[in-house]
Specification:
The chain has 18 helices and 13 strands. It has 409 residues and is an alpha/beta fold. It folds into three domains: 220 residues, HUPs (Rossmann fold, 3-Layer(aba) Sandwich); 75 residues, Tyrosyl-Transfer RNA Synthetase, CATH 1.10.240; 71 residues, Structural Genomics Hypothetical 15.5 Kd Protein In mrcA-pckA Intergenic Region, Chain A, CATH 3.10.290.
């Protein structure tokens, strides 16, 4: 049973979203008596967010579910600088055109997970470039810079870790925390924002914004972070052999997205159901208690529920149907990844890497040696095997029990 009285903090606590918070008692009281506006920032450094961002998006969803107003901040301004948090090197500089294109690509995903309307709790999507790019350099130095000491900035992990590794930290990146702190001040003034949420790596940036708002405007605002989501095997959430697990369909087909969740470790099923679905807690308790092969039912439900949330009902049902057809019937569902091998054919190792089943031809050859690779149900044991298909023909490529694709010509 949660110790919090407000629906907001109780919901965050019971579903495993809480890691750190500033003045939890005062925030609990505030959330219990009025609508709280809270925000999370996302820098548009790619055409899609990935599941590493999903924990933060869920914070906004829970905020709205508890009767409060979420703001999505697209970091069109901050992305021009780059967040040094957790990085060993400077981010590549993105053009104005690329940032605008990325923001346009990312926007649609939020509309599936948040309610955007004119009500008091309707979500807002705002680009911080609207104010950051208009700030004068002298203005920001005089009005904001005076509240930051170099001594304190050097203590933040995002700075300290880079310097400890003797990796360069540009003056540009050093300003990131000042810009992000200014975002909180601006949102507090213009939208009555009282809460910033984010991942645990954003704690230092959030605290900076809280202190800046208090020092300049004398207003009390708050911060909440979610824990770093790791899998039972110790890996950071969102890492996979074939690359990032993107939220957008254009970057990752729905079936592959569904399959990532279906492959969840047994030990993570309950945690992920609480964090990334809206299923009732008693139903989650029942599902995570399943044992043996029965736990696979819970994994399929997890995969379908997360896919529905992120991609929509139609995509979830299509992915679920493809999985059922692939695993139960031995067929080749329409949503499976596909690869064209061409008239000259393709070596099996190259095909496994090209379709995304392996990260390198070396790994592919190891999988072939293990007897894990099949074409049309027949095991391929020769790493030099060349796949040749007739014009218009197709064949099913499998690696292990969980990875399947279609080869075409």
């Amino acid at each position: 049973m949660s110790e919090y009285k407000s629906d907001l903090l109780r919901l965050l606590d019971e579903r495993g979203h809480l890691h750190q918070l500033t003045d939890g008692g005062a925030l609990d009281v505030l959330a219990g008596k009025e609508i709280v506006t809270g925000y999370v920032g996302f820098d548009p450094t790619a055409p899609s967010l990935h599941i590493g961002n999903l924990a933060s998006i869920m914070l906004l969803r829970r905020l709205q579910q508890a009767g409060h107003r979420p703001i999505v901040i697209m970091g069109g301004g901050t992305a021009k600088v780059g967040d040094p948090s957790g990085r060993d090197e400077t981010r590549a500089m993105l053009t104005e055109e690329k940032l605008a294109s990325n923001i346009a690509s990312i926007k649609g995903g939020f509309e599936k997970m948040l309610r955007f309307d004119e009500s008091e709790t309707g979500a807002l999507l705002i680009n911080n470039d609207d104010w950051l790019s208009r700030l004068g350099y002298i203005e920001i130095l005089r009005d904001v810079g005076q509240h930051f000491t170099i001594n304190r900035m050097l203590t933040f992990d995002s700075v300290k870790l880079r310097l400890d590794r003797e990796q360069p930290l540009t003056f540009l990146e050093f300003n990131y925390m000042i810009m992000q702190a200014y975002d909180y001040l601006k949102l507090s003034r213009d939208y009555g924002c009282r809460l910033q949420l984010g991942g645990s790596d954003q704690w230092g940036n959030i605290v900076n914004g809280i202190e800046l708002t208090r020092r300049i405007d004398g207003r009390e605002v708050y911060g909440v972070t979610a824990p770093l989501i790791t899998r039972a095997d110790g890996q950071k959430m969102g890492k996979s052999v074939s690359g990032a697990i993107w939220l957008n369909e254009e970057q990752l087909p729905a079936y592959d997205f569904w399959q990532y969740w279906r492959n969840t470790d047994d030990r993570d099923v309950g945690k992920f159901l609480r964090l990334f679905t809206d299923l009732p807690l008693d139903e989650i308790a029942r599902l995570e208690a399943l044992e043996g092969s029965e736990i696979n039912r819970a994994k399929a439900i997890l995969a379908t529920e997360v896919t529905r949330l992120v991609r929509g009902e139609e995509a979830a049902r299509a992915a679920e149907a493809t999985a059922a057809q692939t695993f139960a019937d031995g067929g080749a569902g329409a949503d499976l990844p596909s690869l064209t091998v061409g008239e000259e054919g393709m070596r099996i190792a190259a095909a496994l890497t090209a379709i995304g089943f392996t990260a390198s031809n070396g790994e592919a050859k190891r999988k072939i040696a293990e007897g894990a690779v099949k074409i049309g149900g027949e095991t391929i044991s020769d790493p030099g095997f060349v796949i040749e298909l007739d014009e218009g023909a197709e064949a099913k490529l499998s690696m292990g029990k969980k990875k399947h694709g279609i080869l075409t010509r």
